[in-house]
Amino acid sequence: MCNELKFLIDLVQQASHLINDELVVNAKDDKGDLVTNFDYEIEKYIINEIKENYPSFSIISEEFNNEKGLTDNCFIIDPIDGTVNFAHHIPLWGIQVACIRDKKTCASVIYLPELDEIYYADEDGAFLNGKPISVNSYNSHKGLYIVEGPNSILGEVKMKKLNPHCRHFHCAAVDFAWVACGRISATNFVKDTLWDYIPGQYIVEKAGGVIYNSTKMHIAANNEEFLQMMKNNSSVITTA
User: Fold this and answer.
1) Cα gap 26→16, rounded to integer Å
2) Between the N and C ends of the chain, which has fewer C-beta atoms within 10 Å?
3) What is the rounded distance in angstroms from the CA atom of residue 109 to the CA atom of residue 174?
4) Rounded Cα distance, 157 and 164, in Å
5) Is 60 helix (H, G, I), strand (E, B) or coil?
6) What would the pLDDT profile of 135-181 be if each residue is shown by its tens digit?
7) Residue 82: helix, strand or coil by DSSP?
């Protein structure tokens, strides 16, 4: 296990201890997107720890650094992915952070505190609570899949004509983590927010899966056949 991964595992677990019963929920906009006091508190904590331990690395994060782009060496933070679930006491939410060193993702963690599941990956592979994980072997007509994000309904309608087994968890961290451990076969995140898909895609890749990225199309799948089906049908975006 690399030093960056050891740091991230401890970081997200410590960050989760900031959550208590004093939940404050606010609307980010008029479209139903929410933010809580813990989104801010967790992100501030993670940012401070990174600055102390990796001062030369830049930071991309959902609440305070969401307009920054990738650099050669950086951390990508989503303090609470699935905030709407979290705010409504639905246990499908998580804390996720990835580290990029020398232009390549080298470590990633997704922590789902209420499920007591911590997913992580580096060059040694992908793991869930310390045990190796891998994607499943279902084909595109049998496996479960997810189409997540704004304007994803038309893609979902197209996919259901080929495979009716669509699921919705409304949390990208859960979506990608569950592809990595084999519960789900594929997911497409239809939005360009780095903190939502980079941590999870890396864990899927290290669990033996495949990934694809283009404008507002960020797919992780168990195999190339399922990925191609998702690419061709699960987004309204036309790709070359």
Assistant:
1) 20
2) C
3) 12
4) 9
5) strand
6) 999 999 999 999 988 778 888 888 999 999 999 999 999 999 999 99
7) coil
